Amino acid sequence: MPALPPAPPLGGGSPVGSRGTAMTGGVRERVLGCPVDVVDMGAAVEALLDFVAQPRNPPALVVTLNPEMVMHAQRDPEFAALLEHAALLVPDGVGVVKALRRRGHPVQQRVTGIDLIRAYAPHAARLGHRIALCGAAPGVAARAAEELRAETPGLQVVASDSGDPGPAVAERLRAARPDVVCAAYGHGAQERFLAEHLPTIGAAAGIGVGGALDVLAGRVRRAPGVIQAAGFEWAWRLAREPRRLRRQAVLPLYWWRERREVAGSR
Hints:
Elements: E1 20-21, E2 27-31, E3 34-37, H1 41-53, E4 60-65, H2 67-75, H3 77-84, E5 88-91, H4 94-102, H5 113-127, E6 130-135, H6 140-151, E7 156-161, H7 167-176, E8 180-184, H8 189-201, E9 205-208, H9 212-216, H10 225-230, H11 233-240, H12 245-248, H13 251-264
Parallel strand pairs: 4-5, 4-9, 6-7, 6-8, 8-9
Antiparallel strand pairs: 1-2, 2-3
Helix pairs in contact: 1-5, 2-3, 7-8
C-alpha cells in the first residue's frame, strides 16, 4: 500500500469539539481522535457524485464508520492513517451518530453503507456511472448485483467478484472499468484493499460497505424499521448472528471512553 503520513494521536489526541474542514467542504469532527464527517444522506450522495465527476489523485476512499472501527484505529496506526486520509467518513454506527449529537449536531442521522448504495444508485443510473461489487462469500456479490439492477433499472453494475482482496481481484475489476467500487471484506481489510488497489483499478471512488452485499443478496435480513429507528439494529444483528459477539465486545469500552471524552471537555 502507498505510504501515508502518520495519523494524529488517537484516544484523546484531539479535544472534543475541535473541528476541521472535510474534503467535501463540510464539517469534520473527531470521536476519540478519529475523524468523522457531519453529513446526511443527501450530502453523502452529492459527495460521491462529485468524486466521480472530478476524480482525485489518489482516488476517493469512502468509509462507513462505526464504533468498532474507531476502536480498531486506536490499536492499529496504519488503519488510523487510512481513516485520516479518507475523502469521506460517514457515520454508519449508532454509537458514532450519538457521539456527534453530543458534539453539537443534534439532528445527525445514520448514513449506512447499504442505504448509501441505494440512495446513490438512481443517480448512477441516470449519469451512466459504472459500479463494481467485490467481497462477501462466494456468489453473494453476483446476487447483490442482480438485486441492484432489479431495484434500479438502467444501473450499470459492471462487475461482481467474490475473490479474496488482492491484485488478482483488482486486475479483474480494472478490466470492467468501474467508476465506483463497493468492497465488502469487513472493516480494515476493505479499506486497505481500496487504498492500495483503487489506482490500479482506475475507479474514481471506493466505498467500504461491510455487510451491505449480504443484505442486498437476501443472505442477511435487516432489522425492522422500528428497531433501526430506536438505535438497536446492532442488538438485532447480534441476536441473529452470535458470531458478531467477539467484534462487538469492544462496544462497552467505546461507550466509556467516548463519554469520558465528552465529560472531560465540559
